[in-house]
Amino acid sequence: MQDEKIKGFNVLELIVVVVLIGVISAIGYPNFSEWRKDRETRSAVLSIKSLIEGINSQVQRGQYAFVQVHILEEVNGAERNLIVTSKGMKPEKLASLLNDGTSDWWAKIGDRCNITDDAYWDDDPDQGADNVEVRQITYDNMATSWEGDDGAICFSKNEKWYSGAGKLQSSLPEEGDVARSVDNTLFICRRTNDRSSCDVDSDGTPASEHDHLYVIEWSRFGNVILEKWDTRNSDWVKQ
């Protein structure tokens, strides 16, 4: 009888422990899940930042004279991908463009940061380039502030040919014509069933409650910084 009581007590104790573990797990899982999501987002953003810094280092070393970072938000039916690609132009090709007396390539910001001509760049992963100087990374769970479109930023060693194209080039009216300015921010957030793009207004502030939101900023000289949106204090925090 004494053995049976001890066994009964042990079973009861086990049930209590199992219940406690279940309660603790239920409380802790949401925090762990959010931590995991933010870690995945941060890892993706750091990889994109590294890609921008990497292609800039190649232009500073003289491997390329002109480089591009192209960001494509690709929509293929129900599938969406964020594709970030670095591309390079050799010094010889840039020299030929500059020395072409019939071309006004140098005067057109959008044209020189070309996103339409497949043969424009000497090394382009989209065209099969597999050398280590250029890269392409694809994410199926990350988004930016636009959908189904693309943009690009271009750098040169002396910053003279700094330019943008597509969603990373802004148009400003100037004396009846159009002046082009280059955007210097890329917002990255986690894509979910409820959020297909980063909801950010024109001054860089989230227009709705936003977790796991980052921004990569760059200068015409290729300096790159990373910030994360602090929802508690409603401010950007440098990482």
TrEMBL record:
Keywords from the named record: Membrane, Transmembrane, Transmembrane helix
Domain of life from the UniProt record: Bacteria
Keyword field contains Transmembrane: yes
Protein name per UniProt: Possible pilin protein PilU-like protein
TM ranges: 12-32
Family annotation (NCBIfam families): IV_pilin_GFxxxE
InterPro entries from the UniProt entry: N_methyl_site (IPR012902), Pilin-like (IPR045584)
